[in-house]
Write a structure and sequence with these properties.
21 helices, about 55% helix
């Protein structure tokens, strides 16, 4: 017996049962892909919606983390890719467009590759110290899609790769499904809104079409500008309209009452948990030793004072009375210790106001003290020169001045000029003495002191000081002195502001 010939796809109205859809990593490149390149973004979105509705691809079969299904979020990411030509999306671009996190975007791109809808042309790289290069993808249509809908393809160029084959026809059994996929591809899937209550199933069904979930297009009649769905049966007989006297202002009483209850003063009133988190955020911004701490943890630590109606200023006043630590290793732990029992000690607004006043007075006193210090140091650097405070430094300076004066006035007239004075100075100071002076000056320079060098510059001039200490040492000392003076002036100006 010779078996009967296998019927063609056009003669069979049933859809073949397909195995699970999964493309391994080695076949996720354009050169190794078994699918074909989509002609445009519209036809590619038809394949995306088919994969989302077929259930053939299940991500959790191949990994233990990430999304559980190919759902509306993956379709939203695919929508952004369908509008790009060439398809070179950066991770940061998709994060901005979809509002997802970077890890979520990477998960959904991997799901599109594993489902056979994307194939790498160029894989992006991240070189240390250089800009990140985005990956370039080819939008692919899996073989399973062609088999399920009975799509026939043909290779027009025999020398071209297999992924360049084009569509030549479709079976009758797949035309109806293709029409439904066309409606889904023409509709834009948006970010889903917050979860609705289970008590209002009618509202949830009306919002389902606006959210753009991956379902078939509803046949409901749209009768209002707000796109509210209505059923085929009329409910006009059960509807009662209010009298015109209650609608004179154009706003119903029930709407205004609900709005006034939901919002006070135009803003939503915070509950107990909201006040805790608000105080935690303000504390992490006000206190330097709480920067970088977890806001939920700080909210839990400060829950007692937040529930008692404290403000951040009250907490600052209490910390001033309690005493803060100079070295903080764990900010949340220190705050928990400092706030222990605070709401029982400062249990009245008057006590908290007194603590705030003491803290403000201490802050003002510290500010004035810093200003006085800056002014004193500025006057010392910008006023007349004072002798060094160290006895050893003064002795060395006096000895150097004596040798310089003796070498400059010994048997020579003043009209010999600077050249004669320099020659006499070199003859008077031996190499050992010069080396000792320079060593002492270098030692002080490493400690941040420039008194010895700058004293010689102010008394004898820069050329004579360079002759003794060298041009490099004098230059560095002058830079350090100039930098400290400019920083002090800037600090004094900030204190005055």
């Amino acid at each position: 017996m010779v078996p009967a010939p296998r019927p063609s796809v056009d003669d069979d109205d049933t859809v073949a049962v397909l195995p699970g859809l999964f493309v391994p990593e080695a076949s996720q490149w354009l050169s190794t892909s078994a699918g074909r390149i989509a002609g445009d973004g519209y036809s590619w979105m038809q394949a995306v919606h088919w994969v989302a509705g077929s259930g053939l691809y299940k991500p959790r079969r191949h990994r233990s983390h990430g999304p559980r299904s190919f759902g509306p979020t993956t379709v939203r990411v695919a929508q952004e890719l369908a509008q790009l030509f060439p398809c070179r999306p950066g991770i940061d671009y998709l994060v901005r467009r979809t509002g997802l996190s970077e890890r979520s975007v990477e998960y959904h791109l991997g799901m599109l590759r594993e489902a056979g809808l994307l194939a790498w042309i160029v894989k992006g790289t991240r070189v240390s110290g250089g800009p990140a290069q985005a990956s370039e993808f080819a939008r692919m249509i899996p073989v399973e899609f062609d088999v399920a809908l009975g799509i026939r393809t043909v290779q027009r160029d025999e020398d071209a790769p297999a992924y360049t084959r084009a569509v030549s026809g479709i079976a009758e059994a797949g035309r109806e499904l293709m029409a439904k996929l066309a409606k889904k591809a023409a509709r834009k899937v948006r970010k889903p809104r917050s979860k609705t209550s289970s008590k209002a199933p009618a509202k949830a069904s009306a919002r389902g079409a606006e959210q753009g979930v991956v379902t078939a297009v509803s046949d409901e009649v749209r009768c209002t500008p707000m796109q509210v769905g209505t059923s085929a049966s009329s409910t006009a007989g059960d509807t009662s309209f209010p009298p015109e006297s209650k609608l004179a202002s154009g706003v119903s009483k029930s709407a205004t009452s609900k709005k006034s209850k939901a919002k006070a003063g135009g803003r939503r009133k915070l509950n107990v948990v909201g006040r805790r988190f608000q105080m935690a955020r303000e504390l992490t911004q006000e206190l330097d030793w709480l920067r970088g701490c977890s806001v939920p943890r700080i909210a839990w630590v400060a829950r007692n004072v937040a529930d008692a109606g404290w403000t951040v200023a009250d907490v600052r006043g209490w910390l001033h009375l309690r005493g803060e630590a100079a070295r903080v290793r764990r900010g949340s732990g220190l705050l928990a210790v400092l706030l222990a029992g605070a709401e029982t000690v400062l249990d009245t607004p008057a006590k908290r106001a007194d603590a705030i006043e003491q803290w403000s007075g201490a802050q003002e006193a510290a500010r004035r003290h810093r200003i006085q210090q800056v002014r004193a140091r500025t006057e010392r650097y910008e006023g007349d020169w004072d002798a060094p405070t160290s006895h050893a430094v003064r002795s060395e300076v006096e000895a150097a001045f004596t040798k310089v004066r003796d070498a400059a006035t010994r048997g020579r007239h003043q009209d010999h000029g600077d050249v004669a004075n320099n020659q006499a100075l070199e003859a008077e100071l031996s190499e050992q003495e010069l080396a000792q002076l320079r060593a002492d000056a270098w030692g002080q320079l490493m400690a941040g002191e420039t008194d010895l060098v700058m004293t010689a510059v102010n008394a004898m001039g820069r050329p004579a000081a360079e002759l003794i200490y060298g041009a490099e040492l004098v230059h560095r000392a002058h830079q350090i002195a100039s930098g400290s003076r400019s920083s002090l002036i800037s600090l004094m100006a900030y204190g005055r502001q």
